[in-house]
Specification:
About 80% of the residues lie in helices and about 0% in strands.
Length: about 290
């Protein structure tokens, strides 16, 4: 199997894992405060990442890599989880998932700026079309009904796209799982302190679903998913493999309907199908 194909397979596995992130976050913020959820998931994943790095005796990143790792940490360890957790207090996970359709465009833009990639003009046409479909859907659903939630999701997409691109670029040097582990370790001291400061006064009112949500976003969304995702970006190209995120609404909407019993209307399905068509065109013209 060639490197590009392996990259797409790894990227697909990463997207499949990430698809459960927003529904799990939606469940968790029912009982946990967004700041605590963000800090605790990063702290839990950071402790596991530290244990892996020590056990496998991985060499420390060079000084020049620290800035990139800080960008990764701010984008995917702190920024995206915190912004989405707050957003999900205002909007449903089914609604927020559709915004994930903007991530491929954001990732591709930062892939050009930070990764030096140069997709063809047709690639940008398909990426832009997919993004416009997502924005058009949000407006048609009544963006004024929850403008705070939608704006937070847009901000989350921007910082996440930067974190994805920076991590994919750095993975070519350090390796996929090493990048996310070092980014988690870099943010671990601060996240531990914040988690302790914002922890619930009592655990009596925390339900089982909230604990399950916290476990999922800590182990899978914050660590395991990135092992596959960063490896895929490094192998198959940031802009190209990043388009796989357009598949995420399919899985996410299905999970929201099955687990949270949220409504998935025909408009959501129609937009999702349309943006998946866009990924095929973007993939063809990625190089």
């Amino acid at each position: 199997m060639d490197k590009t194909t392996t990259g797409w397979l790894n990227g697909f596995l990463g997207v499949l894992i990430f698809s459960g992130s927003l529904p799990a976050t939606r469940v968790a913020v029912a009982d946990f405060a967004p700041v605590f959820l963000t800090a605790s998931r990063a702290a839990i994943a950071g402790l596991i990442g530290l244990a892996l790095l020590v056990a496998l005796r991985e060499r420390r990143p060079e000084r020049d890599d620290l800035v990139s790792l800080a960008v990764v940490a701010l984008g995917v360890v702190v920024g995206f989880p915190l912004l989405t957790a707050i957003a999900l207090q205002h909007i449903t996970s089914a609604h927020s998932i559709v915004f994930i359709g903007l991530l491929p465009l954001a990732t591709a833009i930062f892939g050009v700026l930070r990764g030096g990639e140069r997709p063809r003009p047709a690639f940008w046409a398909f990426s832009l079309l997919g993004s416009l479909l997502v924005v058009g859907f949000a407006v048609s659903q009544g963006i004024s009904a929850a403008p705070v939630g939608d704006l937070l999701m847009l901000a989350a997409v921007v910082v996440c796209g930067l974190g994805y691109a920076e991590g994919g670029r750095l993975s070519r040097k350090l390796g996929g799982w090493q990048v996310i582990c070092w980014a988690l370790v870099l943010s671990l001291p601060i996240m531990l302190v914040i988690a302790m400061m914002t922890s619930p006064g009592t655990l009596a009112g925390i339900g089982g679903p909230a604990w399950a949500g916290l476990a999922y976003v800590s182990l899978f969304s914050m660590l395991i998913g990135f092992v596959f995702w960063y490896r895929g970006l490094a192998q198959g190209g940031i802009a190209a493999v990043g388009q796989l995120q357009l598949l995420q609404p399919f899985f996410g909407l299905a999970l929201a309907a099955m687990l949270l019993h949220e409504e998935v209307n025909p408009a959501m399905i129609g937009v999702t199908v349309a943006i998946v068509v866009c990924v095929a065109g973007a993939k063809k013209f990625a190089k």
